[in-house]
Backbone:
């Protein structure tokens, strides 16, 4: 079964899913971290990093991760160096609001032959950085959306749908002080029929609840897992968004 089909079936059962984003550049006791994460009933792992320069480290991280978990491991690359043959799938994303064509189509064209050679499942996704986007916004040269114009974000999401992208990811950026506005999520949900992912700055049950109430299918938790006793908050978020299961 493909990873995309697995996600589709999980969403039919659970209504909302919880993914954890692991930064391959952050050194941590991975076995202990994964044990705590999986006590919180998450649905999949994303592995990425905005400034990955060492593919060997990424490859080793995913190899080890595959040895200690049965959950899907999906690449979420920020550049050409974020590809590993060991992953289950890759979010094949275009940074739609970048000012640099490299991040819209250039790096995708460079990566495509490698993805084909590795026989990686590619999941087509429109990626939009909201606000400053932290490191991801800086590296990707993202053009900010006016905060008072959520309909512009929705227009980009609709364009992604018409271009054949089955996923849209709204990103506030790793460690963002402000998550994506629920109002923006609501506008995007009103026009985008595919799978809607939201990440960045989700560190509380209240924020998580607002985002799924407005239409997010999948929440992505990142920096939270590098904080002490993160599993308390993560477990509460998981229980809330899975409560309809």
Residues:
């Amino acid at each position: 079964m493909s990873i995309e089909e697995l996600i589709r079936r999980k969403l039919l059962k659970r209504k909302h899913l919880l993914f954890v984003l692991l930064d391959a550049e952050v050194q941590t006791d991975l076995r202990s971290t994964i044990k705590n994460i999986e006590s919180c009933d998450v649905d999949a792992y994303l592995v990425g990093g905005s400034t990955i320069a060492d593919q060997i480290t990424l490859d080793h991280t995913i190899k080890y991760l595959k040895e200690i978990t049965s959950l899907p491991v999906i690449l979420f690359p920020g550049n050409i160096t974020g590809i590993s043959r060991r992953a289950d799938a890759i979010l094949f994303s275009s940074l739609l609001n970048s000012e640099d064509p490299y991040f819209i189509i250039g790096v995708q064209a460079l990566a495509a032959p490698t993805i084909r050679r590795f026989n990686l499942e590619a999941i087509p996704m429109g990626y939009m950085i909201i606000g400053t986007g932290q490191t991801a916004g800086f590296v990707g040269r993202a053009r900010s959306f006016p905060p008072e114009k959520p309909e512009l974000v929705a227009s980009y999401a609709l364009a992604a749908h018409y271009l054949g992208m089955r996923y849209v990811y709204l990103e506030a950026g790793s460690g963002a002080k402000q998550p994506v506005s629920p109002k923006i999520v609501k506008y995007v949900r009103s026009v985008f029929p595919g799978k809607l992912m939201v990440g960045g700055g989700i560190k509380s049950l209240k924020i998580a609840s607002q985002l799924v109430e407005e239409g997010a299918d999948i929440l992505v938790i990142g920096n939270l897992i590098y904080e002490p006793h993160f599993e308390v908050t993560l477990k509460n978020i998981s229980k809330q968004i899975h409560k309809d299961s």
